[in-house]
Design goal:
Structural class: alpha/beta
Number of domains: 2
CATH topology of the largest domain: Translation Initiation Factor IF3
Family: Belongs to the IF-3 family.
GO molecular function, one term: translation initiation factor activity
CATH architecture of the largest domain: 2-Layer Sandwich
Number of strands: 8
CATH superfamily of the largest domain: Translation initiation factor 3 (IF-3), C-terminal domain
Subunit structure: Monomer.
Function: IF-3 binds to the 30S ribosomal subunit and shifts the equilibrium between 70S ribosomes and their 50S and 30S subunits in favor of the free subunits, thus enhancing the availability of 30S subunits on which protein synthesis initiation begins.
Shape: rod-shaped
CATH class of the largest domain: Alpha Beta
Distance between the termini: 56 Å
Helix content: 25-40%
Protein name: Translation initiation factor IF-3
């Protein structure tokens, strides 16, 4: 009854190299510190596997269990956890330093749609050439943009000048 583990996180049956191990039975009872060969015989009699649960303990802690069933349940739990995760996307909206009021309104409406969908929005104002000297205007543009989006968003990262771009990150308001 030799099971080679596909999951490399656990040592199973013949892979255990320690002379003595602390054994936990299949019903959860403590069997104490036993010679590894004897523990393997007990597991074999019950047609189960001896699995190292805590390899760093002295002596290592092993459990008698159905390893195939254990691996199946672990993968099932991982899939369930993955299914419950919420992926947050970051959408970017680019503005220029010479943008007009109506254009800001249109882009703010698009940002509101993104925020209502649960995405974060990164708003970037790009400065070209001499516009870099008037970078303070970018702050006004971003504040105006936030005022238009207003009720749907919270400023997660305030406006900051990074090279030729001024960026601000908006997150959806929590209900």
């Amino acid at each position: 009854m030799k099971v080679i583990s596909k999951n490399k996180n656990f040592l199973v049956n013949g892979e255990i190299r320690e002379k003595q191990v602390r054994v936990i039975g299949d019903d959860g009872s403590q069997l104490g510190v036993i010679n590894t060969r004897d523990a393997l015989k007990i597991a074999e009699e019950k047609e189960l596997d001896l699995v190292v649960i805590s390899p760093t303990a002295v002596p290592p802690v092993c459990r008698i269990m159905d390893f195939g069933k254990f691996v199946y349940e672990q993968t099932k739990k991982e899939k369930e956890n993955k299914k419950n995760q919420k992926v947050v996307n970051i959408k970017e909206i680019r503005l220029s330093a010479t943008i007009e009021e109506h254009d800001i309104e249109i882009k703010a409406n698009n940002a509101s749609k993104f925020l209502k969908a649960g995405d974060k929005v990164k708003v970037t104002v790009r400065f070209k050439g001499r516009q870099n000297d008037y970078a303070f205007k970018g702050n006004d543009i971003l504040n105006n943009f936030f005022a238009k989006v207003g009720g749907d968003a919270v400023i997660e990262k305030p406006a900051k000048l990074e090279g030729r771009n001024m960026t601000m990150v908006l997150a959806p308001k929590k209900a």
